[in-house]
Every structure is written in C-alpha cells, then in structure tokens.
Design brief:
By secondary structure, the protein is an alpha/beta fold. A nine-stranded mixed beta sheet has the order 3-1-2-5-4-8-9-10-11, with helices on both faces. Strands 6-7 form a two-stranded antiparallel sheet. Helix 3 crosses helix 4.
C-alpha cells in the first residue's frame, strides 16, 4: 500500500499536475492598415501562437541589426482556440519592433500580440507635429483594434473579453489615454519647461511650431480629446510612461476604471519617475507600481542590443554598468504575466 502511494506521488510530481499547452511557436503577419478618415497609414505586425514548425533559414550575410531579433514563422496557422490579445504602443520615434523581447515571451505564453507604427512618430516616418499630437496615437490603436477584430482569421481567434494594452514611454501615455486619462492643455504657463523639452528623436525642422497655439494641433486636440477611452481594452501595462507634465489633477483620471500596472526605473532621466510614473500612480486609483533601482534608466525597456547597436547608438542601447537589460526584461515579463493572468 505504501509503495502504491509513493508511485502516485511520483506520478503527480513528474507530470506537474495539469498539463501545460505545447510550447507555442511565433506566427507573424504583416498588415498595412490605413485610417482613411485621418489619412494615416498604420503599418502593423500581428504576432500569434502557432503549432507550426519553424524552418531554420540561413542568416543573411552583411545584414547589421541594432537589436537582437527573434525567430518567427510568417503566415503560420493558428490553433483552433481563442486567445487573449495584447496591443502594443511604441515610444516616441520608435516602431512596432521596439519591444520584441516582450512580444516573444507573451506569444509563447499564448497571447496574440498586435504592434503598430504610429503615423508621423515612428523610426522611419517622422512628421514634427505628430510628435506633439500625442492623443492621436490612442485613435491609431482604436482603429487597428477594430480592423484586427474584423479579420476573418485572426479576429475569429481572439477572446474579446480578454484584451489588454501595453506601452513604453509615449506609448505608456497612449495606454493611459485609452484607459480614460486625458491631457489638459489649458494649464501650461506654470509647467517646468525642463519636463516639456522635445525628445531627442524629434525630427529636424526649420519650421517653428507653437505647441500652445498651432491651429492644427489645437483643432486635433479639440476633436479627439473626448474620444480616447476604449472600454474594449480591459487592463493596461505601461513601462516608463511619459507626458506626466500634462496631468495635474485626479479629475483627469477619474474615468479610468480598468486596472493599470506601472513599471519604471528610478534612474530614468528622460521621463523622471517623480513627475511621470509616480505621478500617474498617485492620480490613478486603479494603478499598481513597481520601480527598479536608481541605476535603471529609460531605454532599458527597449530590445537587447547587438554589439553593432552598442557601437553606433550607445545612448539607447547601453545601460549603467550595474544593470543587466536582460534581467530587467525578465522581471518585467514576470510582472506583466502575473498582472494579465490576474486582470484579463
């Protein structure tokens, strides 16, 4: 009898209880959406779980990458089941591939992930005014979400009750806007102008743009400021969120009812935690926050860099000597997985 009990225990331990799904590969589909109502092209990548087998391809000679890449299976098949969806918004001047370290793990865990390039505010498409019309990014996400849900193949495999938002830097603000927070442009005179300086990614232009009074910026704000909240998105995970200078009172975040998790580094000198991450946490009643130590800066949430990347773009690829970017990523993923498993 004792022997049978031991065998039963051994079987339970060796099987690990309930069987986990087979480890998913990463399917990838590229789509060129265009929001014709605003004349905004929105290049989009859809990454999704697949059981297809990856066919190893020979590395292309002479191709130099700034960041480490991941292996995907273009146009792979989707298993016949429903998956939760995550929508990713990149930082200012970034692109839909900026957070593939995050995308890779989440897809392998069973999430469909959609990542888009924001018009005029991405790596290869820079329009000065789009760098300061931050609120239009939320409309970009809404449009892409609508189109993805309409897709006969991808949309049919999405669990629409389990949709989450993810963002880095300006993409962090984008998600807070989608949750129901809004920038107040009526308060500007007393702001600390150091917090409002243009980002390093801002494109060169000889044109002088008056942020406060420019007719195109003002009209855009008036048109879209009350259209940003999207109740289809049930939870938000934001990394090093920016634009804290545009938030002054809890009234600006009172419409936020969805849970928000904020993660940032105390060493961030581009979006300092005092006036951004911690400020948002104070203003948003549904928020949680996790802060890395004073050595962890802003760009640690970008992909791991190659040796080539560290050589030609050290400002966004190199961290403090005491910081291991991969370790920060692993901890961030742990936080994100726990958050979405609990809140979606």
């Amino acid at each position: 009898m004792k022997t049978l009990s031991l065998i039963a225990v051994f079987l339970l331990v060796s099987c690990g209880g309930p069987q986990k799904e087979k480890n998913f590969g990463i399917g990838q589909k590229s789509v060129s959406f265009v929001d014709e109502s605003r004349n905004r092209p929105l290049p989009t990548e859809i990454w999704y779980p697949t059981l297809d087998t990856l066919i190893t391809q020979e590395a292309k000679e002479g191709k130099k990458e700034l960041f480490k890449t991941m292996e995907t299976i273009p146009n792979a098949t989707l298993p016949n089941k429903k998956f939760p969806l995550l929508l990713i918004s990149h930082g200012t001047g970034g692109n839909r591939f900026s957070l593939t370290w995050f995308i890779e793990r989440m897809v392998k865990e069973g999430y469909i992930v959609v990542s888009l390039d924001h018009y005029g505010n991405s790596t290869f498409n820079k329009v000065p005014r789009e760098f300061v019309k931050w609120w239009e990014r939320a409309i970009d996400v809404q449009y892409v979400l609508t189109q993805v849900l309409k897709d006969n193949k991808i949309g049919a495999k999405i669990n629409t009750s389990r949709i989450g938002g993810v963002g880095f830097s300006l993409g962090g603000y984008t998600n807070i806007a989608l949750a129901g927070g809004y920038v107040d442009r009526s308060i500007g005179e007393n702001d600390n102008m150091e917090d409002r300086k243009m980002p390093a990614e801002f494109p060169h232009t000889d044109e002088i743009i008056d942020f406060e009074n420019d007719s195109l910026i003002v009209s855009s704000y008036k048109r879209y400021k009350d259209r940003l909240k999207d109740d289809r998105i049930k939870a938000f995970f934001v990394m090093a969120p920016a634009i804290g200078f545009g938030f002054h009172s809890k009234g600006q975040t009172e419409k936020i009812t969805a849970p928000i998790f904020i993660v940032a580094g105390k060493g961030d000198d581009l979006a300092p935690v005092k006036t951004n991450a911690k400020k948002y946490h104070t203003l948003i009643k549904t928020s949680e926050i996790y802060l890395f130590d004073e050595h962890v800066g802003h760009y640690v949430f970008l992909n791991e860099a190659t040796a080539f990347g560290k050589e030609i773009a050290p400002e966004i690829t190199t961290d403090h000597p005491k910081v291991d970017r991969k370790e920060i990523h692993l901890k961030t993923l742990e936080l994100a997985l726990h958050f979405f498993q609990e809140k979606l």
